[in-house]
Amino acid sequence: MLNFNYSIPTKIFFGKGQIEVLGKQIKEYSSKVLLTYGGGSIKRNGVYDDVVRVLKSEGIEFYELGGIDPNPRIDSVREGIKICREEGIDFILAVGGGSTIDCSKVIAAGYYYDGDPWDLVIDKAKIEKSLPIGAVLTLAATGSEMDSGAVITNMETKQKLGVGHPSMAPKFSILDPTYTFTVPKSQTAAGVADIMSHTFENYFTLNDGAYLQNRLAEAVLKTCINYGKLAIDKPENYEARANIMWASSLAINGLLSYGKKPVWSVHAMEHELSAHYDITHGVGLAILTPHWMEYVLDDERVDKFVEYGVNVWEIDKDKGKYAIAHEAIDKTKEFFISLGIPMSLREVGIGEENLEKMARAAIYHKGGTVGNFKPLIYEDVLEIYKAAL
Ligand code: NZQ
Ligand code: ZN
């Protein structure tokens, strides 16, 4: 196990009714807030009313930035920074899923930067500090509620890039599972796939000596498998929504990667799909994952797949190594299918036309190779895209 410094600074308020702490938490930082949200789901399901009621009852002045798109755009970031500067706002309250929270994080960092905020996305070294942000999570998926990263899309340059800085981590996040009852089946499924993918990215490393972290990762995966379908079939099942919501935060908040050095691969390949075709992040991950697994499976890596198959899918450990590995990969794919996720690129409107361009971009954005479980070069990424067609 490698050395690490544990630091997960976000306070979590988990459970039904936790919105009541919102006012007090914000007041530790500010009384003038930018309230950010997406396309309007929070207005339809009552979350907006809850938030506004609490803000008003605490006398907190607020301005709004709505309409933040899934795969949030740099244009929304620019708009948010402008409002904050014009109105003298010093706190951002993100109410929504990963897109709203990510956009808010970059508004927070961009507030202190003189140039165009896209510069920060390209070069995070330019980020020095950020406005404080808080989040009310409405979709369990990205873990943005408890990490310091954000992913922003530039439609003009067709780039979707990750950026992160410790100051961008939310000061607090409110996780009320009942706020996710209205998440549509397709987004619930994509969210579960995203949580599993974060876990895979942290789990699939070689000879890491991080036994504990790997068992924690398996627990997160088993939680997704146990509750994913239930949350889709019974959207108001509190236990399912609660377990998935907490899994979303734990998959990416550092717990699973401390002491290891995972370099992510499927995410790098997926971000190119979303950048070029604006598809749902979790769907792209689910399509690519089984193909990535089959592609990297070899003698050096088979034991890790055996660990995954036996511990997560409870496959008979006396079967041959490769039999276990292939069965585990098949089960992963079948699970995504059971959630109703389309499992080929063509089904989400992606043909052969841009595969080479996207493979080149994935390699370029990752500085030469993608991932480190098995470092992938251009030809590898292209093969995986082709297999996923
Ligand atoms: O926009 P609204 O109207 O709110 O509707 C959203 C949106 O259409 C809807 N939704 C959210 N909560 C809902 C709801 N509908 C009904 N009831 C609710 N309670 O769901 C749709 C998707 O929302 P979005 O925020 O885009 O989804 P998600 O949370 O999956 O975020 C995806 C983005 O996060 C990035 C992805 O790349 C993508 O851009 N990621 C961020 C990460 C991070 N910050 O650490 C890591 C991830 O790997 C990921 O890359
Ligand atoms: Zn993800």
UniProtKB/TrEMBL annotation:
UniProt KW DNA-binding keyword: no
Domain Fe-containing alcohol dehydrogenase-like C-terminal: from-to ranges: 188-389
InterPro entries per the UniProt record, alphabetical: ADH_Fe/GldA, ADH_Fe_C, ADH_Fe_CS, BDH-like
Keywords: Oxidoreductase
Residue ranges of domain Alcohol dehydrogenase iron-type/glycerol dehydrogenase GldA in the record: 9-177
GO MF entry, a single one: metal ion binding
Pfam family, one: ADH_Fe_C
GO terms for cellular component: cytosol
Record has Oxidoreductase as a keyword: yes
Coiled-coil blocks: none
Descriptive protein name: Uncharacterized protein
Organism: Sporanaerobacter acetigenes DSM 13106
